[in-house]
């Protein structure tokens, strides 16, 4: 029987940062799954420990009750870190959740030139909540028929809404007339500068007007 060939560290595909078996993703290589003959090792304090075999690095990790994780499989040699794998995955999950929650959505309120005072402040209360929660806001004032003759008052209504919401956001531009509609967008102030004037933080976030034609 011929002698087995020495292990050469595997093919580039085997050096992938992910174990792929049957099309399933098993995450980054760690501990005994690290296949390269030599790796560059970073200690738990972030300092480089040098180049060594995975066996040597794993021995160091186990003495501290930690794991060895391949963080840069395409480097030459691959880079691995000694760390607490459970804590590492927890922090990564937090980052992913934070990234998703930071995605900015655009909410909309729709006004009319002859809107009642109570309705106007209901719209403002909704708009305040959208901006307070970090969403962008689109304000649309719609005019029909002879209402087009009162464009000045319509612009005044939009500008009034912007001024009433200055404690949570700022206008991105001047209001513009587009056909029979006047519109502008607002962006939220930095989180530590936003305040509530028309509602409280415990109030539910309302639905916006984007699906409401208000015809």
Q: Please report which band the strand proportion falls in: under 5%, 5-15%, 15-25%, 25-35%, 35-45% or over 45%.
A: 15-25%
On the 0 to 100 scale, the average pLDDT is 83
CATH class of the largest domain: Alpha Beta
Per the CATH scheme, the topology name of the largest domain is: Translation Initiation Factor IF3
Q: Say how many strands there are.
A: 11
Proper CATH architecture of the largest domain: 2-Layer Sandwich
Indicate the low-confidence ranges by residue numbers: 3-25
Distance between the termini: 86 Å
Write down the overall geometry.
rod-shaped
Mind describing the biggest β-sheet? 5 strands, mixed
Radius of gyration using CA atoms only: 29 Å
Give an account of the 3D structure.
With 215 residues, the chain is an alpha+beta fold. The strands form three sheets. Strands 7, 8, 9, 10 and 11 form a five-stranded mixed beta sheet that branches. The chain has two domains: 20-99, Roll (Ubiquitin-like (UB roll)); 106-193, Translation Initiation Factor IF3 (2-Layer Sandwich). The protein has helices spanning 54-63, 85-101, 117-132, 151-164, and strands at residues 20-21, 24-25, 39-42, 48-52, 67-72, 79-83, 106-111, 136-142, 169-171, 176-178, 181-188. It contains four helices and eleven strands; from the N terminus they run E-E-E-E-H-E-E-H-E-H-E-H-E-E-E. The chain is rod-shaped. Mean pLDDT is 83; it is low at 3-25.
